[in-house]
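Progress note, project year one: complex with N-oxalylglycine.
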Amino acid sequence: MAHEKLGGFLAVPNVQELALTWNGSGEQLPERYIRTEEAGAVESIAGSGIPVVDLGRLLDPASSAEELAVLGAACQHSGFFQLINHGVPDEVIHDIRRDITEFFKLPLEAKKVHAQLPDSVEGYGQAFVFSETQKLDWADMLYLMVRPTESRNARFWPAQPPSFTDSVDKFSAEAARVASSLLRFMAADMGLEQPERLLEMFAGQPQTMRVTYYPPCREVNKVIGLSPHSDATCLTLLLHVNEVQGLQIKKDGKWVSVDPMDGALVVNIGDILEILSNGRYKSIEHRAVMHPDKERISAAMFHQPCPNTTVGPLPELLKNGGRARYKSVDYAEYMKLFFSAKFDGLKSHFDGLRIYIVDSQASTSRGIM
Ligand code: OGA
Ligand code: NI
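Model obtained:
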């Protein structure tokens, strides 16, 4: 999820169009989408399964300390939580949901005006397709650089519906506010003396957004909507654009469903925050699965560090003789390694993170380096 460019993404069929004809046909599922082993191999457990954190209680001095313990436990053990009382106005959520839904309703030709270019993940299409034989996800996406505003490329931003940009702007500002608020409390939970310590690394608050459109699939046990991965970011805020369930997180080797909770945002710790916290916080592997007859749409707002940030355990956390569990690299190098790991066909973003883990015995790195 970088601002980095790279050559060689391959164009693949539009899944929304494919689903439209295929779901109503008697035809077999095209081979490149068949992932029966992956989709069916691991037991999945129903249930919302993740903690609930109340931002209102965190901000209220009377309940802050108590809720900080809830937040800390959620970040350390679960890596994912539902955030309630986040203060994002209903109207802002309503407008972005409406405009995203409208965008995907446009005819294919109108959406394709914003199609990805061969050397970039930005725009409408599918990311990370490197080979003709690679298995494909059952989803289309729109990936946008949102902040800083200079990083935007207007050609990828939907012109229809006309309020799209304004709605994203308003939601983006709210998401940035929520993320900064959370980062201050996380700094406190980590025992950092300066509450702004984590926030400093996100000055200007770089943000990207991935909107994913998962068409229905009549053979849900054969396809994956979004391949297992962890987010190569700091903090992700996920908005369910509609209320269809599909997100699953890996817990004790099993996939656990995360049900959308009315009015909540799903927050998850990304790889970078796991590294900064020296492993105190967990970046958890997750994926998305399909519904047999309902479309599902989600919007993930990724919060990234500034380009000059060092991605490595915070020195303050190593003061009392603690050992660094990850290597330190600068952010540009981190993203380069992330993309080369992807290109080398490592199974998921999560394997990318493993590159940085220092072996507990020998203090050397594991992985592909
Ligand atoms: C993502 C992501 C989950 C979902 O975009 O990184 O994990 O439910 N999305 O769409
Ligand atoms: Ni993700």
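The first strand starts at residue 44 and ends at 45.
The chain has one domain: 15-353.
No further modelling is planned for this target in the current period.
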